[in-house]
Specification:
Blueprint (H helix, E strand, L loop, with lengths): L1 H30 L10 H12 L6 H15 L4 E2 L8 E2 H36 L4 H15 L2 H15 L16 H34 L2 H8 L4 H26 L6 H6 L5 H11 L2 H29 L9
Helix pairs in contact: 1-12, 4-5, 4-7, 5-7, 6-7, 7-9, 9-12, 11-12
Length: 320
């Protein structure tokens, strides 16, 4: 009962937060003058006529009402009118065509980062204050401190330009699961993995180090368990309670992608589309993609919170 109430409360707060942010985005973007990236001529007049028919020149409250009515009655989130490559195409259809590359590079990076990061964290905790721990901790702090786009340039220079192991940018096409396409994705995947590996390693080391110093670990050893048995049966299980929710949140938030990484490696994904929409002031695309990123972030936070109660039955979310 407590969990159900807590879930309903969090979902209500999610909807309220999402609506408030979207309304603010809508008002601010509509307060700007409409820019049409087409020269003087018949094409420009056609676009102006289309925008007029869709109510783009109405007062902002009227536009907002028409925008909501189009979404809930027709599933119409607008069209791309300022992106030459996608002009007059549905925002939703363009988004669907851009989603697979973003999803794949982030899923691949998570599949690489999670086992490596947790393994390094466990190893550092077991070697606490030894030279191995010092090396891992120093390296982790270095990787956390440096932005991901710096890794992207280094990966591109060393592995793509100097060693020529990978192409500089992702290959064109839609055969996302072919060996050549996967190879062209690897530089972006590696660049995204560095920060996640460092984060998982630092978090795992901190949690496991704390668990290993608890009294019940000493009791387990006095009962005859070896250090390896006590670590695997008790320490790791308890340390994973706060670690596993972050992993769940990572998988939920993979759709958010990386705007800069996608731009550097020419990934034809959602991140690049978002940047194009901002630069071109394509308002419908901006609204839809902003809502997408906001929703993913809010859902990830809820999933992380709820997973605590699922992983550890002793935790009752919402109980007093």
């Amino acid at each position: 009962m407590y969990m159900l109430k807590y879930i309903m409360k969090r979902l209500g707060l999610l909807v309220m937060t999402f609506v408030i942010i979207e309304v603010i985005c809508f008002v601010l973007i509509k307060a700007l003058p409409i820019v049409i990236n087409v020269g003087i001529g018949q094409d420009r007049q056609i676009i102006i006529a289309q925008l007029t028919a869709r109510g783009y020149f109405d007062p902002i409250p009227v536009q907002f009402w028409n925008y909501l009515k189009g979404i809930f009655t027709r599933g119409d989130f607008g069209i791309c009118y300022n992106l030459p490559e996608y002009r007059n195409q549905s925002v939703v259809e363009v988004f669907r065509s851009k989603l697979p590359p973003t999803l794949l590079i982030n899923v691949y990076s998570s599949l690489i980062a999670i086992p490596i990061g947790i393994a390094l964290g466990i190893f550092a905790a077991l070697k606490k204050n030894k030279w191995e721990d010092q090396v891992i901790s120093t390296t982790v702090m270095l990787f956390i401190s440096v932005p991901s786009f710096v890794y992207a340039f280094l990966v591109q220079y060393i592995f793509c330009f100097k060693l020529e192991w990978f192409p500089l940018t992702m290959l064109a096409g839609y055969d996302y699961f072919s060996p050549d396409m996967f190879l062209s994705m690897l530089p972006a995947v590696i660049s995204l993995s560095f920060g996640s590996i460092a984060g998982y390693a630092r978090y795992t080391r901190a949690e496991l180090t704390e668990v290993l110093t608890n009294d019940y670990m000493l009791l387990a050893r006095t009962k005859g368990l070896t250090k390896a048995q006590a670590t695997t049966r008790h320490a790791l299980r308890n340390a994973m309670v706060p670690i596993f929710p972050s992993i769940v949140g990572e998988f939920v938030s993979v759709l958010s992608g990386s705007l800069i990484i996608e731009k550097i490696f020419a990934i034809p994904g959602v991140g690049g589309l978002y940047l194009m929409a901002i630069n071109a002031q394509d308002y419908d695309s901006f609204m839809f993609l902003s809502g997408f990123y906001i929703l993913i972030g809010l859902l990830a936070s809820i999933v992380i919170d709820l997973s605590y109660g699922v992983i550890d039955p002793r935790i009752r979310m919402g109980a007093k």
